[in-house]
């Protein structure tokens, strides 16, 4: 005994000794009533100071695991160690106990299945990510924001906060949204743990009473996370095809005439995956049309800040004026730091009041630390500085990626006028999964587009995320994609000639 | 125009100027094509430096809201401001659109209704909270942990993490649970945004297929949050009465014989609200019994660390050995910092794999900042130091509260052998809501116990949370409660004499 103790760095020695002895107790190697070695003796055995042993014994006593007898030393306390009792270890089949929503969560978990990035070896060029480039992060300003805020109200930040969110942040973001042209009359805000929680909370609350499930509209293709969560929540999805300036209004109206819907999930700016920005005219027509059929809009403000060219377009919730039919989901995850999980829902005040209760039931509130750090970071004027740098950097990459695609993949139609990705559409019959096979062999991965489609479509499309790829690798990777695509197109043409 | 500009502290001046002009644009006070004042002119009008105006104009140009014409100055860009278009503002009735779960979330939201604390005036003695006393928080160690971790891997922490959690924290907590005697074979861990999210995720995944709703067992009384979430998720609740050493096993067995259950939610240590610690013998009997009926256990590790007296008792998941029937929910929120939203689910590996997908769908992952800060704080050995102080402090308050109750409220049966609260049970017929009325008038609030009951019971019980009340106020408050109770008991006795 006592011969397998190993010290590690950072953690205080006495804590390590305490945990070591605790483990011996739990394993039954040290039994109740047994005398522990003297502090001098154990210090020698473990090769640590006597002070550490004394502190460790004190800590064990504190936890009720040992007791001291004056003049006699420390003893192992009576305790209900699991080892001391024989319990029939019963096993259950958890898979049988999982319900539909849980099973769907696994089935639709793209990170676990169909994720090309999973196969990445070192040196692979990864066009699969649209996470921000962490080299851009201004750590010093983040640290400053943290310390500033801790100095102002550290104790408050570490205790319970409010389900609705951290008040100074809410006030700041309300102003921020007002600057985007939103009329705040009758509206309110709920802070969530990122965009995704916001969407999940909204979807969990709307419609679908009486079992059979509701119906939702969305652009087709759209956001994977949105498709997944719409399905998980039991919504039937009706996808509306995209045109270069936003979704096909005629197709939308046909659907609205035949069925009723609980809502429409829309990504009007730098749409994921197509990168399309819905035009101002179409936004107005959309709002008018959905309003006529009383279908509320769930607007994803995704990447709104990552505009490189073109004029300013107001979000739908701004265009709706004092109307209460738009629920806006915002987040700085893609433009600032995804590790800080803060998003917001801006909507009708009565709706926010309900969602606040849902949020409280689900997770009490979003981390006050994250919220207050973000608030102070914004207050210190860092967003503007950061966006200036980030926009310049991403814009360069965006233009470079576009130029490379135009040169090396002329067979595909490009879309995307901002954000962190481009979308490629090949001729019908082309299969981007086959293309991925070829490219993966040469160390280049991207995201096949069918993952973003709510139906069987999109086999001939793909998304290229460039945010985390160097310019050198962008050029190299796209050349590989172009050459592989040429080879595949040749094969398709030949097949057509022989069979068509 | 330009006469209602007001500077505030902290935010850079140019950002304030930019936002000010943006607002004028959004309001339509500045129109597309209009020339903005020269930088010199505006600097004078607003009383700020010319450099700030130049930076503000640049930022507006960056955002696509303005454009510069060489030699002529800056102009307002063409944009789709909401003010420029007339849209019929349509309004919907959101309440009609809310589903059962959302409505239940509001209805069961104790923070919004029935919360005695809501009526608190300044100077009120609040026994309603069981949040930690923030005067105990060791801010310096929290700051140190943050800066240490940022120095090691700041960029990684701010980018996306993993749904399962921050690996170093998981490894640390697995060891931590092993030290509590848990056999980790076949088990795994998911990090959640606090205990509550853990519970909500587990409940969202188990049983209730085919609509009609499942059934759950729990101690009666129990945790408000648990009752709320069991109901929200559509479970019928069967409460088992408590005895001084844990729930009534005979009553439990009777229920198990008559119905099947999807699970049992149990709080074996410092049970909320009764403060009861289930004895080691009862824990074993419980596990054996539930195992026989194949009912999985959801164990709330609540306050396990806040043990003041008595011997160490292993959690149920430790006693279950290699069995996989116990799902353990842990958190340091009550012992450390609630503002940092980190909890964990320790359970069968296959179950964790499913819950990981659910977590990803709901919120991608828990704040990496919170997780890494907590990890570094633990690694630095602060938990032990903090617990030593916190235990001493809370124990003193606990004993003081107990002594005051024994002296001044001798009519009530006391329970609670640790944690941050005591539970009082008055004779049948006594109504603690009436007591609260009397006490509130004298500036003392507590939590009536019926809130914790799954049935109509508990009108004669109450919870006293002492963690955030000074010793002076504890004595004063309990004297008020005692005197008011005496008055009420007198009235009850009289009524009995006249009517009994």
Automatic annotation (TrEMBL), chains A, B:
Keywords: Aminotransferase, DNA-binding, Pyridoxal phosphate, Transcription, Transcription regulation, Transferase
Ion transport keyword on record: no
Pfam families registered for this protein in UniProt: Aminotran_1_2, GntR
Ranges that cross the membrane: none
MF (Gene Ontology): DNA binding; DNA-binding transcription factor activity; pyridoxal phosphate binding; transaminase activity
InterPro entries (alphabetical): Aminotransferase_I/II_large (IPR004839), HTH_trans_reg/aminotransferase (IPR051446), PyrdxlP-dep_Trfase (IPR015424), PyrdxlP-dep_Trfase_major (IPR015421), Tscrpt_reg_HTH_GntR (IPR000524), WH-like_DNA-bd_sf (IPR036388), WH_DNA-bd_sf (IPR036390)
Annotated signal sequence range: none
Cofactor: pyridoxal 5'-phosphate
Domain of life assignment: Bacteria
Keyword Transferase attached: yes
HTH gntR-type domain span: 11-79
Protein family according to the UniProt entry: In the C-terminal section; belongs to the class-I pyridoxal-phosphate-dependent aminotransferase family.
PANTHER family in alphabetical order: HTH-TYPE TRANSCRIPTIONAL REGULATORY PROTEIN GABR (PTHR46577:SF1)
Protein known as: PLP-dependent aminotransferase family protein
UniProt source species: Paenibacillus mellifer
């Amino acid at each position: 005994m006592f011969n397998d103790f190993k010290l590690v760095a950072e953690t205080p020695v006495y804590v390590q000794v305490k945990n070591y002895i605790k483990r011996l107790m739990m394993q039954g190697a040290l039994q109740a009533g047994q005398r522990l070695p003297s502090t001098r003796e154990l210090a020698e055995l473990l090769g640590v100071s006597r002070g550490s042993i004394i502190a460790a014994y004190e800590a064990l006593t504190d936890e009720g695991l040992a007791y001291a007898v004056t003049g006699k030393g420390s003893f192992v306390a009576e305790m209900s160690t699991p080892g001391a009792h024989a319990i029939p270890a019963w096993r259950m089949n958890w898979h049988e106990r999982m319900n539909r929503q849980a099973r769907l969560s696994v089935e639709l978990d793209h990170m676990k299945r169909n994720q090309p990035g999973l196969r990445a070896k070192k040196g692979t060029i990864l066009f699969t990510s649209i996470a921000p480039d962490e080299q851009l992060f201004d750590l010093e300003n983040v640290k400053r924001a943290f310390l500033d805020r801790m100095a102002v109200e550290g104790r408050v930040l570490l205790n319970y906060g409010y389900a609705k969110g951290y008040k100074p942040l809410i006030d700041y973001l309300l102003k921020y949204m007002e600057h985007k042209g939103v009329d705040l009359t009758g509206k309110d805000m709920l802070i969530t743990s990122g965009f995704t929680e916001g969407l999940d909370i909204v979807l969990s609350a709307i419609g679908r009473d009486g079992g059979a499930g509701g119906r939702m509209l969305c652009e087709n293709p759209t956001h994977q996370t949105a498709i997944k969560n719409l399905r998980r929540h039991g919504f039937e999805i009706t996808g509306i095809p995209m045109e270069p300036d936003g979704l096909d209004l005629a197709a939308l109206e046909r659907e609205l005439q035949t069925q009723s819907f609980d809502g429409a999930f829309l990504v009007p700016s730098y749409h994921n995956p197509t990168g399309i920005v819905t035009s101002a005219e179409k936004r107005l027509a959309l709002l008018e049309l959905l309003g006529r059929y009383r279908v509320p809009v769930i607007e994803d403000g995704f990447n709104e800040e990552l505009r490189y060219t073109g004029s300013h377009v107001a979000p739908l919730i701004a265009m709706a004026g004092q109307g209460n039919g738009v629920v806006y989901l915002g987040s700085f995850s893609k433009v600032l730091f995804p590790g800080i999980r803060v998003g917001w829902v801006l909507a009708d005040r009565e709706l926010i009041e309900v969602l606040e209760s849902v949020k409280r039931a689900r997770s009490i509130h979003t981390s006050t630390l994250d919220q207050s750090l973000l608030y102070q970071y914004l207050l210190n004027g860092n967003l503007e500085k950061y966006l200036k740098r980030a926009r310049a950097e991403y814009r360069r990459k965006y233009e470079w990626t576009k130029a490379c695609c135009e040169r090396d993949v002329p067979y595909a139609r490009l879309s995307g006028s901002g954000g962190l990705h481009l979308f490629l559409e090949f001729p019908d019959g082309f299969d981007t999964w086959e293309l991925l096979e070829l490219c993966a062999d040469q160390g280049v991965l991207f995201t096949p587009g069918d993952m973003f489609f709510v139906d069987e479509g999109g086999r001939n499309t793909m998304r290229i995320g460039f945010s985390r790829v160097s310019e050198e690798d962008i050029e190299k990777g796209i050349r590989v994609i172009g050459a592989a695509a040429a080879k595949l197109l040749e094969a398709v043409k030949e097949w057509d000639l022989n069979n068509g």
